[in-house]
């Protein structure tokens, strides 16, 4: 009877492991602080860029490298660092990632020229790639009880969903009241808290027994991701037809195909096929890839609209996003704690994607003189609900059922999808916006050239981007509906650890 009740609570082996860490909720707080730091840094630095450019006197063409340097190192090393966490211990890589990220942030904040800033951002990406999968895999291996696991992933999902919007507020406040440098220095504070907490609370982590590093796999996937991210970044700053763009994208695609073929033959694969061949996990990775590209349209172009067209300050635009942040945080918790155990991930993804699509369609009604309450608040609330539902299931579903030896690389796969989706979204939506603006001006040859025409062209480009985002979200709803299994998550046969199997046997005996 005990075994049956345990199984009904979340799969045949979904029971509370014996000897659960009594400090696990404090560990969750440490992981949440680390995750918040990584998510905030992406948005905060975007707001700091104009001020940094004026202070260090680098060109607009060079400005993209402050973002691209981070994206290249982060995206290229995620799978390698995820597997490294499994091989040498997640506690070690978590603490090393925190210390390195803090050191790179301090150097970036103290930068006296452009090369120093870009180098610091590249180092941030390296240590971010070490930190992000380590944090998520620690969460996945610390919480085994289904109800506790749901709450823990609800908190993680809320941080992931709300962190980007919160970064707009923090970045605006720091840039306006202190200096752009504090957008880097703030990471030192977050990292110090997390390092102290992690060192005191996180115990020794098991390593993958007999595991070896797949060096050819590391070379193929890291170079493939580097080429793809660099290619998409190049498309955003130049054109899709530029040889440096399509050659890089083609090379990246071929390298990743070679990586996939090698993983089926490697003795110790970097990304074991068993991790990605599960439908639910594969569906979660595709979901974060698709949503990552479209969500970029919300954060970037909506901020452009508020600041450039409506004249909002950085602080005011960040404050305007707070309702979305609040709703996404609430829905991520509700989704993970209440909905995911009952209905599973598929309805959550489909509903979240369709809510986001409807919010994007609603945003296409903006004009040069739109009011916040009449044109922006409603779509932001709907979008927050949609993002909360999506992020409320991604982390839990993307790591569900994996053995502890694969937790790091499964976590890295989630971050890789998000990074690649963001890079694709940056390139695609920037290109679409630029083309729509040019077409609008060309389609009004008799209009008086001046600020009014260019403002109208900008608003038209934003609306066009929002239509495309709506289409991407609808695609995500279709993909999620097809890929994800119906019903609550169920542990695959043989996926339980020896410890969990022993607990089931003990319960049966009792």
TrEMBL record:
SUPFAM superfamilies, per database record: MFS general substrate transporter
Domain Major facilitator superfamily (MFS) profile, first and last residues per copy: 27-488
Cell location: Cell membrane
Alphabetized UniProt keyword annotations: Cell membrane, Membrane, Transmembrane, Transmembrane helix, Transport
Keyword tRNA-binding: no
InterPro entries found in the cross-reference section: MFS (IPR011701), MFS_dom (IPR020846), MFS_trans_sf (IPR036259)
Membrane topology field: Multi-pass membrane protein
Positions of transmembrane segments: 25-45, 65-82, 94-114, 126-143, 155-178, 184-203, 215-233, 245-262, 283-306, 318-335, 347-364, 376-396, 465-484
Protein name as catalogued: MFS transporter
Species: Catenulispora subtropica
């Amino acid at each position: 009877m005990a075994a049956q009740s345990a199984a009904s609570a979340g799969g045949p082996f979904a029971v509370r492991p014996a000897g659960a860490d009594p400090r696990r909720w404090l560990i969750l707080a440490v992981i949440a602080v680390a995750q918040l730091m990584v998510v905030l840094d992406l948005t905060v630095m975007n707001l700091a860029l104009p001020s940094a450019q004026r202070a260090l006197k680098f060109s607009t063409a060079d400005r993209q490298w402050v973002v691209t340097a981070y994206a290249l190192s982060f995206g290229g090393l995620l799978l390698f660092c995820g597997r490294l966490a499994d091989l040498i211990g997640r506690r070690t890589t978590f603490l090393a990632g925190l210390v390195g990220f803090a050191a790179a942030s301090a150097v970036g904040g103290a930068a006296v020229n452009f090369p120093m800033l870009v180098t610091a951002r590249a180092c941030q990406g390296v240590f971010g790639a070490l930190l992000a999968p380590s944090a998520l895999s620690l969460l996945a291996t610390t919480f085994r009880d289904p109800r506790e696991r749901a709450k823990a992933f609800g908190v993680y999902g809320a941080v992931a969903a709300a962190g980007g919007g919160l970064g707009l507020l923090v970045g605006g406040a720091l840039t306006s009241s202190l200096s752009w440098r504090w957008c880097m220095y703030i990471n030192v504070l977050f990292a110090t808290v997390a390092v102290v907490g992690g060192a005191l609370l996180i115990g020794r982590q098991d390593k993958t027994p007999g595991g070896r590093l797949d060096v050819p796999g590391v070379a193929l996937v890291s170079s493939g991701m580097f080429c793809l991210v660099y290619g998409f970044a190049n498309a955003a700053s130049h054109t899709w037809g530029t040889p440096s763009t399509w050659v890089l994208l083609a090379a990246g695609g071929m390298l990743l195909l070679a990586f996939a073929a090698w993983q089926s033959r490697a003795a110790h694969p970097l990304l074991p096929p068993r991790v990605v061949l599960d439908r639910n996990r594969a569906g979660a990775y595709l979901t974060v890839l698709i949503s990552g590209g479209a969500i970029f349209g919300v954060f970037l172009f909506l901020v452009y609209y508020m600041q450039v067209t409506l004249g909002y300050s950085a602080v005011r635009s960040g404050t305007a996003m707070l309702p979305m942040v609040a709703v996404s945080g609430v829905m991520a918790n509700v989704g993970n704690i209440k909905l995911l155990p009952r209905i599973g991930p598929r309805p959550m993804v489909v509903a979240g994607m369709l809510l986001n699509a409807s919010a994007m369609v609603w945003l296409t009604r903006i004009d040069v003189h739109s009011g916040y309450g009449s044109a922006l608040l409603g779509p932001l609330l709907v979008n927050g609900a949609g993002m909360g539902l999506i992020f409320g299931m991604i982390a839990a579903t993307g790591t569900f059922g994996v053995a502890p030896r694969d937790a790091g690389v499964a976590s890295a796969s989630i971050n890789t999808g998000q990074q690649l989706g963001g890079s694709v979204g940056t390139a695609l939506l920037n290109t679409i916006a630029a083309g729509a603006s040019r077409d609008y001006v060309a389609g009004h040859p008799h209009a008086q050239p001046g600020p009014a025409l260019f403002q109208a062209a900008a608003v038209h480009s934003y609306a066009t981007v929002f239509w495309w985002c709506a289409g991407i979200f609808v695609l995500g709803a279709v993909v999620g509906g097809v890929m994800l299994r119906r019903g609550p998550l169920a542990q695959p046969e043989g996926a339980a650890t020896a410890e969990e199997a022993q607990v089931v046997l003990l319960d049966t005996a009792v």
